[in-house]
């Protein structure tokens, strides 16, 4: 189909860029606010912005408990739990490379459970691509791991929460598309997802961190990018992709995350770029191509 040859690759490339810019944004923002506080301000501001936009266009409406509840659950998982686990792990001192490697289990988890939840089975070629993609991530990340830094066991387990949350959220959203359930417009969906995330984060942000925030120009600029480019742009693109292609193909794009983030860190912070970063990116890209090249049929 022409649309799959034109719009899907463009959406995928934009998603990869915007999604992974969020890790760079977190590195800028965390010195001025804790994990829960940063995420609370981010999603409170996003909720207000979406509410104003929808009200201005007379589209701020109640879609019913079932649709709103689904959006809230998916949002709390994909936004709140996923991001909180990543940032908490970094705060525990776990090397970013380890976090990236653990989170990269997500495409494999999606492949394992997509058939049961969405009826879209994973082919042998896609499994080969998923495994190859993970190997690419391992090459890029493994060369950067400080194997002498044991850290805390708890800190190393936290990213598994991110894997479970984003996998479940993606499969729940894709299942809704496959079953032909009523899907709200993207902006209204993001509003209810954002609202649920802000409410879920309010308690730990106040109780654990007392909303302590340094309102520096750097923090404000970082928040603006995280709100509009990542929470609106990247997440919006992810839901658009899930509406058009199966969950395994969308999940495979996460393999490009660690190598692409390393490239961004090289540009933004002058971090050293290793040959293994480029090699890992190329291997992961081949794996993603294998996964993306298969047209899906309900299993």
TrEMBL record:
Keywords: Membrane, Transmembrane, Transmembrane helix. InterPro entries: AA-Vitamin_Transporters, EamA_dom, EmrE-like. It is found in: Membrane. The lineage of its organism: Bacteria, Pseudomonadati, Pseudomonadota, Gammaproteobacteria, Thiohalobacterales. The chain crosses the membrane at residues 36-56, 68-90, 96-115, 127-147, 153-172, 184-207, 219-243, 250-269, 275-294. GO terms for cellular component: membrane. Signal peptide: none annotated. Belongs to the EamA transporter family. Residues 10-140 form the EamA domain. Its main location: membrane. It comes from Thiohalobacter thiocyanaticus. It holds the Pfam family EamA. It is a multi-pass membrane protein. This is Permeases of the drug/metabolite transporter.
